Every structure is written in structure tokens, then in C-alpha cells.
Structure of Phasin domain-containing protein:
Amino acid sequence: MRPAFPAVTSLNPFLVWFRLWFQTAEMLAASAQVIGHRTTRMMSAGPLPSARDQREFTKMGQEKVDAVMESAMAASTRYLLANQQLVAGFWQQAMTGMTSMMTAAASPARMMQLPGQAYRHAGALSNQMIGAMAHVGQHGLKPIHRRATGNARRLIKLNPVGGAPLGKKRGK
């Protein structure tokens, strides 16, 4: 099982946000292909679509509902997990701070080190929080991305670039 927040993420949350951006761009490109294909298919089907076209058009609507439901579930589950981990991090930071203050009471030199420790802990927790929100976005996007790219691959096989529109024979 993978750790919830890989080490690289806590060091550089930018990488997580970049991955989310890349997945979003890939999903948008695949969606544009699918929309173009299905629009062409609807136009060529006319007012009386074939049984095959009717199945595709029905599937198109149901897929959207399923993807949104799955996306909401994945994002909310990840959000709850992130909240639990962040609360545990805050609690650990508070306990570390209390221990450090009690130790510092016995040593004035130790008192001078407290601000640096506090900044380091706060920075690490801040990076974890920033990365956690990107992970929520990634998990929420995953079902939609999977369907959009899968549809693009499936539909391109049905009508490769330069091929005749669906339902039409080449040369007729």
C-alpha cells in the first residue's frame, strides 16, 4: 500500500499540483475529441438514429451521471482522509511544542532554539496541507479522466482520422 503523502509531495507540493494540471489538460483534450466525434455522429444520424446510435447516445448520458457520482465519492473520501491526517499532524505539532517548552524551561539556551523548530514544523505541515488538497483534486478527477480518455480511445477505433463518418460507407 502506498503512503498517503509520498515523501516527494511533502517536500514539493508543486509536483502534485503539476500532475493535477497535466491530468486536467489530458482529460480536456480527450473530451474535445469525444465531443467532436459524438456531435458528428448525432448530425449524421439525423432525426431517426439507428439502434447502435441510440445505444451510444443513451450511454453518453448515463456515463456522465456515473462519473460525477464516482468523482464526488472519491474526492470526499480523500478529503476525509486528508482531514484525519492533518488533525494528527496538528496534534503531533502541539505535543512537540509543549514538550519543547517544558524542556526549554530548564535551559535558557534551549529557549533560543524554539522559534526555529516551530517554523520548521509549521512549514512541513503547510506543505502537507497544500499537497493534500491537490490529492483531493486528483482523486476527484480520476473517474472523469478515465472515462474521457477511454471514450476517446474507443471512438477513435470506430472512426479513425480520415475515415468515413459512422453509419456511412466510404465512397458512397
In short: The mean pLDDT is 81.
